[in-house]
Amino acid sequence: MNRREMIAGMGTLAVTAGAVMTGTAFAGDHSHMGHTTGPNKISQTALDCVNTGQACIQHCLENFQVPGFAECAMSVIELNAMCTALAQLANSKSKRLKQVAALSIEFCNACEKECRKHEKDHALCKACADACVKCATECKKIAA
User: Fold this and answer.
1) Is residue 27 part of a domain?
2) What integer pLDDT is reported at residue 102 of this predicted model?
3) Which end of the chain is less crowded, N or C, counting CB atoms within 10 A of the terminal residue's CB?
4) pLDDT per residue over 29-64, tens digit each?
5) Confidence check: pLDDT of 81 > 80
6) 102 lies in which domain range?
7) Would residue 120 count as lying in a domain?
């Protein structure tokens, strides 16, 4: 990863963080209202994935000298962008949610693959990979 890619990635990270903060206000726990499946469930799972990803990215940046962490960070940055969009579209009950959920599965699987490379030595990478699996599972329910 060169400096230009790193700067671009950090810019994306800042935008994603802002979007997540905005999306979280709309995606709170609505389980008391009986909405534990469908768009509300996918929104919460996607935002959980983004939040876990933020911690993973920070960890990658703090340990950037570790081989493979640049690729891991870029994978999580892409995942966060996709999951932020997924959560926002779920919250707005988009008619295209099914297609976005299907595409999100690819991002979740790619991120999980990168994070699994570091999970034995880095708990945050394992947590991110596990969140990817949960999000992909919910996406499969919507995309089916």
Assistant:
1) no
2) 97
3) C
4) 444 344 445 678 999 999 999 999 999 999 988 888
5) yes
6) 36-143
7) yes
Looking up residue 74, the CATH number of its domain turns out to be 1.20.1270.360
- Is it the case that residue 88 has pLDDT exceeding 50? yes
Summarize the confidence of residues 9-27 as an average pLDDT: 45
Q: Rounded to whole angstroms, what are the CA distances from 2 to 7, 56, 74, 78, 91?
A: 9, 20, 12, 17, 36
Residue 25 domain-assigned (yes or no): no
DSSP string, the chain: --HHHHHHHHHHHHHHHHHHHHHHHHS---GGGT--STHHHHHHHHHHHHHHHHHHHHHHHHTTTSTTHHHHHHHHHHHHHHHHHHHHHHHTT-TTHHHHHHHHHHHHHHHHHHHHTTTTT-HHHHHHHHHHHHHHHHHHHHH-
What percentage of residues in the chain have a pLDDT greater than 70?
74
Rounded to an integer, what distance in angstroms lies between the CA atom of residue 106 and that of residue 98? 14
Q: Does residue 28 lie in a domain region?
A: no
Report the chain's mean pLDDT, rounded to a whole number.
Answer: 81
What are φ and ψ of residue 25, in 5° steps?
Answer: -60, -25
> 115 CB contacts (<8 Å, ≥6 apart)?
56, 72, 75, 76, 125, 126, 128, 129, 132
